[in-house]
């Protein structure tokens, strides 16, 4: 009798579960705020549904939960910029230090600086970073070089290596090499030159550069890069647009297949992906910064 009663109760409970419609997943916010006066530049997403932002003003690192848009400062800055950001699966964030001429590695769990690297003496603008299988590569928009942090078995090196850039890429006045990404085959590095709108491929062994053949198309004001397979997203900051390119496997040629725009863009600088969406921080370069200036992040469909 007891067995029959339990069986009846179980069936009733199961029927209730089957008849109850599944709860709808809460949509992720497509816009969320950063702290007033933060002056964002770089963005990195992951591990997990967390986005990290660097401040041009103080160098602080802010972490936001993409499920809620809420966040907090996890690492207080040194008072100099934090620009390009990339994280690895060891919970480390690699940070380009702008006109401080350095880079540092931050522990995402504690916010502590694990290692700091002086990269340049004199004028410099250490701008962006990409992680490859065995190194972190960092650009300098003032000097025609790349900085390499070799990562043998994931171990942080004692010092950086400087690789001179030669070949087709010629530095001029203004912001030169800005964003950086790997080529689809992983054998080269892609560099966007902001002041000319040209895209280059660099050999990571020699530093020799060749211009990527885009059929005459220019990527004016090119900034952050994001590679997804053979698709390359190029943020064109002051044009408030993201160019979408289809690249050859070796990254020597490509074509622009479209541009993404949004009325919420206010000079976005770079881009990261989560799920089916792209996230871009609005740097608001044309707005004079104050401690009370609002800043935000917008997301768009890929």
UniProtKB/TrEMBL annotation:
Gene3D superfamilies: YVTN repeat-like/Quinoprotein amine dehydrogenase
Signal peptide (UniProt feature, chain positions): 1-25
Keyword Signal found: yes
Keywords for this protein: Signal
Record's protein name: Superoxide dismutase
Record lineage: Bacteria, Bacillati, Actinomycetota, Actinomycetes, Streptosporangiales
